[in-house]
Batch of 4 targets.
Target 1
Amino acid sequence: MSLRTHSTATSILASLSLALIFSCAAPLAHPQSQPGDAGKKSHKENHKPISSAKVHNAILWQDPGDISTKNLFYGQGGEDGQPKPPFTFLDQDKHDSNPKFDVRDANGHSWRVKLGAEARPEIVASRLLWAVGYFADDDYVLPRATVPGLHLHHTAHSVENGDEVINARFARKPGGQKRIASWKWKENPFFGTREFNGLRVMMAVLNNYDLKTENNAVYSDKKTGRQLFLVSDTGASFGTNSVRMKNENGKGNVEKYAESKFITHETNAEVSFGTPAPPADLLMESGGLLAPLYFKDRGYDWIGDDIPRADARWIGSLLDQLSHQQLIDAFRAAQFTPEETKEYVSILEDRIAQLKAL
């Protein structure tokens, strides 16, 4: 190596080191809301982690009953629960990277609408979680919907003619439920149980890599008095299994889903999965500027590791009760193409078979 080449390489390494130092010292900036922002309504929901002192009558999973009879096209809300036009625009949530806003439908129901890359994969993920006994919102994807008066502060590719949304996810909590908190993967009343480990496996099945605390919700159900623990945001699914700088191409991407690793390590007692994968490419892609995000995401790696084989096999036995047509229906509901659906279902059935064989 020439002296000049060595000097250049040294300068690059020094620059990367400085980038890492400064990026670790300063937190990533977040947009600040201004007085009078219409989006402040979205903060009526509590996103702070629940304390152990406030946990009572908590539940993470319930017996799903006859899984083979569940309708995965209409999901938990059923055919009658679909959002009904015309829609009235209410408000925008300006505190999220994906465009979200609230509407009211013709039946007087309020819906949270999500646009962008996460809308379609979230439909499939929530249907599969609901099918095997975990809690989820009532949600649907509408191929097209007109929302008069729609006004977004940041735009999306899925908006046409100013007020027409395409492949938009409409979600609402079942009647009588209210979000009261979030919950942490390492601090919750279910840690170590079969049902909790099963949820960890489901995240790997879905390739849901975005497992931060604010994506977990605690709902208060006034009908039963129970606190329902669920993963409330599963949009980063069915694509790559780790965070990247250009995540739009990594969510709901069947090619990335096919390329990703599922089971990565086995022992006689435990099994480890590829999701969530360490975001190793994040440092390279950002030149070290996203080091805080890298180290934050590294803190979730354990969720897919060292899960008892029996617990993983249990989830496989539940998923195996879903028919080929039910799996097709889940992807059809999300408006994936027939070609994408066929490939997704093939990969999913192979993952279920691997779980059953543990």
Target 2
Amino acid sequence: MAAEPELPDLTPGEAPPPPRAAAGAPSLLQTVLATLVVTVMAGAMGALFAVPPPAPEPPAKAEPSPGGVVPAASGLFEMPPIVTNIGSPKDTWIRLEASIVFDAKAVEHPETLAEDIAGDELAYLRTITLAQVEGPIGLENIRQDLNERAAIRSGGKVSELVIRTLVLQ
């Protein structure tokens, strides 16, 4: 038979003694201190992440060039508008107004170069379909194709073809 725990002798009206804490159990004071330390650490980490990092220094601004966008060694020439019907559907018309950015030192007559590029762009626009132009990806693809054709036609003298307007009707 198992031994029964001894019960203290109590007289009537006397309260029983408080139970003993098990060995290694934290006291109330230790619990409060641990909670206080964790709270202070969490507040410090929150404050550390709440402070924004210092803003990076802006790069030194160079003198603005004529036109604000084109480097001084480059030229900007507005091409004549191109109006044609597209490949499919045949009753849809396209109007392209663009400018070329070219190396001013390498090109003596930009108007002649622009006419050559416009003829090539006209031939290209007659082959596209309406589905190729739809959406932002279609517009980006057309822009890349036009830039590539302008660079090839000019022998690398045109660095970019800037689309000002592109209207399909």
Target 3
Amino acid sequence: MFQLTTNDFIFTLAGIVLFLGVVSFIIGLITLAFKITSGDYAKISNQSAKLISKGLTDDVSDLMRNASSLLESLTQMSKTRAGVGMFLIIVAFILFIVAYYLVTQVL
């Protein structure tokens, strides 16, 4: 078995925390970057717009209400994804600060 000093343990812990911060940051950026460009989101939005126009011409109020509800749900989903992305980026910065603090305690 190898000897692990306190400094080695703190550096290893700081490296792991830094790695987790980088992963969290990358996942947060990907979540924010691909928030709007999702193909499913665009497809559902286009279909909902067609439903609304069909509802206007045929005077079907229930269809209009359901399509409006669907568009509202899609908007909320988009906001939720943005919130998750921002949360992951904030967690990443906190992990960066913790890693920096651990390293400065050794040096």
Target 4
Amino acid sequence: MSRVNFTQIWSPNEEVTRLQTHIRTTLNPLLELPISDGLLQTDLSIETSDTVIDHKLGRQYEGFIITRLKSNSVIFESSSTNDTPDRTIILKASATATADIYFF
């Protein structure tokens, strides 16, 4: 998924232009947040050993949020060296778990 941008459309109507300017001023700071450019992956199986996940962002990840956890477990980033952070993330779990994870 690529980052969404607000595109202002030219209008001869001054009110429309002013409204678009206010919308752009409000939305752009939100759209620039790293979390607004993410991808949700569902039913990922995370093991207690290093589990390499292709985050599919097409760039280096900035973080992740567990959106659904289907067992009692803690999922965390492994301390192992990740040679391909632009494509993958290495995760571990305190107990084997299935989770939905939002990568950004």
